[in-house]
Amino acid sequence: MGIKKLGISSFVVILSLLILLPNHSFAQKEVKIGVILPLSGPLAPIGKSLKDGAELAADIVNKKYPGIGIPIADWEGIPGLGGAKIKLVFSDSRGDPAWGAEQAKRLIEDEKVVGLLGAYQSAVTKTASVEAERAGIPFVNPDSTSPDLSKRGFKWFWRVTPHETWFTRDLFDFLDGLVAGKAPGVKAISKSELEPLAVAAENTEWGAASLTEIEKFAKERGWKIAEAFKYAHKATDLTSESRRLTGSKAPTFLFASYVSDAILLVKAMKEMKAAPRLIWGQNAGFIAPDFWKTLGGDVNGILSRDVFAAVLGKVKPEAERINKIYKERSGFDFDGSSARDFIGVQVWAHALDKAKSTDPKALQKALNELNIPGKELIMPWKGVKFGSPFPGDTNQNELGSGIIIQYQGYPDGKPEIVFPFEMATSKLIYPFPGWK
Amino acid sequence: MELTVQLLVYGILMGLVFALIALGLSLIFGVMNIVNFAHGEFMMVGMYIAYLLSTYLPLDPLLSLPFAAGAGYLLGIVSYRLLIHHILRGPMVAQLFGTFGLMLFLRYLAMYIFTPDVRSIKEGILVGKTLSMGWINVDASKVFSAGVCLLAFAVIYWMIYRTKLGRALRATSIDSEAAKYMGIDTKGMNALAWGIGGATVALAGALLAHFYYVTPTVGMLFTLIAFATVALGGFGSIVGAFIAGIVIGLIMVISGQFVSELKFSFIYIVYFLVVVFRPRGLFGW
Q1: Do the chains contact at B252 and A237, CB–CB below 8 Å?
Q2: Model ipTM?
């Protein structure tokens, strides 16, 4: 065999070895996580804030951020993978469940991501996670709250955020608390002053699930409902829906809406001079920056369930420091959605570090055994540990919790925490002051 | 009774805006047999003009209406001269894709310039003011918009049915070849149809921006409604667009009151029935 032939053969052998060797032994420099979010369409503004949150977390894992006070800021890459950097590969779900599933497939097969994150809308998360389950690739869901998602017995799906059952229980704890006189700054309110309730929910997976949960808890806790209906969420007009609520004469309005509907509903209620005593939104549209930016002072007094508020910085200094960086980059404070996508990437970082590999089985084990203490999170949670907090749940974070915020002092104000009552950062404004 | 009156008022007010949005689409189709998919994006341009002029200049949003209409007119003419004029020579499919491409171009150009953020006009003589009349509380800007829509319809109707220019436009729409032989500048008429189409829908956008949010994808929601309105009223019919707009507004508000979840289904059921039993629409020729 001539030297030339030997050279060519060795080259072929080396090349084959390179191709045949498992991907992860060479992947130490970069770990790809696919992120599916609604980056166009009516939900694009929320999608952008979620993307900003996820990107900031990846940046904090990848680079050194001294003085922040949480361990990932000192990592400079994933320690368990020899300092490999996280690379987020974003994909637009267009808010469409079928398209979202298509994107999950594309990320897994073409981009060869080691896992997925997303997809905000429960309906999209539902279909996209089926693709991950089929392929045996972990799907970490930080931001969808339809209770159904964690009740499917999936082995490759982990949900970090508390879900609607949890939040709805919080809502009724809050209402019962008002009647019991537990809210700071407000005397005990008679139940007849708050009853009956009127509920409007958008008609996709998430809104429908929220409505069911509210009806279930209302029955359990003995609260009467005057009106409860679903509406088409890509609406050009919500006048008659607002009229229906106003016409019910209910003093308490509850909503599950995305941002464009939430804006239209508040505008229409203002137009009709609606005068409820309490307005509560189930997060989503009611906490999006576009909601209060667009409506300005008209949001004052409106309540929303949430998982994060910038005022948390008063009690969690690390949250304040990270929020400051976020605000410099995006122009806004963290909200419950963007902060949860931050945590989503954080969960991925810890799982990769614990698994010390990008092998799906090792990641599955790491996620199942993950235990991040509350002090390492920007959320007011006790931590992240997956289990079964409500009947039927699997791989659902057991240590999360929710808050209820109230918009006070807008357009220049901040959302204040009013529930849990012991965490309240301000007195509750009651009754709802109305629109000028 | 109270409910009936409220629903009628809300339905008619919203319906008039739908009618004005659909007018241009109907006109362009009537004259040239071409479907403008970018129609909703023309409306979005009108909304941004109202938003920008009233936010960054000390101008009441009401004063932005002529600017929006003027810009819409120019946009229509320029689209025709630079794009439509050329694709007319191609097959039907090329024409469809042409306006579809224009839609994507305008939408994502707006996305690039303005980001997907949702904005709204915060100050203006009519913005956020409520008129109370007996049982009804209604946004003053909606009442004003309805008035402007009526006026715009009256002007366009007069122009098309009572002027020489309108006669030329109608002649082009009935038989473009014959009109050409009679000495009518049919290309000019086509451009005019695009200009008027752009002006009316951008005007509708500027009115809508008084009480609706502004975002690059907002046109998408209204385009489908506009198609249903035009099909219901009859392609090319001004009276048809007017009546159909109000009918759609009423269907939307009434079904929203009783079965909100299905309100779009009702609109498309009516559309479907018209297509099956009277394919040319209520007033189409």
Answers
A1: yes
A2: 0.85
A268: closest chain B residue by CA: B139
Domains and CATH numbers, chain A: 28-162+314-397 (3.40.50.2300), 165-310+402-423 (3.40.50.2300)
pLDDT tens sequence across A104-157 = 999 999 999 999 999 999 999 999 999 999 999 999 999 998 889 999 999 999
Burial class for B181, CB neighbours closer than 10 Å (0-12, 13-18, 19+): exposed
CA A209 to chain centre: 16
Picking from A260, A273, A296, the nearest residue to B213 by CB comes out as: A260
Domain residue ranges in chain B? 2-277
Q: Among A283, A332, A297, which Cα is nearest to A122's?
A: A283
In which element (H, E) is residue B121 found?
none
CATH domain B2-277 topology: ABC transporter involved in vitamin B12 uptake, BtuC (1.10.3470)
Chain B residues whose beta carbon lies within 8 Å of the beta carbon of residue A235: 221, 263
- Is any Cβ of chain B less than 8 angstroms from the Cβ of A230? yes
Does the beta carbon of B91 lie under 8 angstroms from any beta carbon of chain A?
no
Q: How far apart, in whole angstroms, are the C-alpha atoms of residue A228 and residue A198?
A: 6
**Contact check, Cβ <8 Å, B253/A45:** no
**Is the Cβ pair B137, A237 closer than 8 Å?**
no
A225-231 vs A197-202, strand pairing mode: parallel
Q: Are the Cβ atoms of B122 and A296 closer than 8 angstroms?
A: yes
Report the C-alpha gap between B1 and A363 in whole angstroms.
Answer: 64
Q: Which band of pLDDT confidence, cut at 50, 70 and 90, is reported for residue A14?
A: low
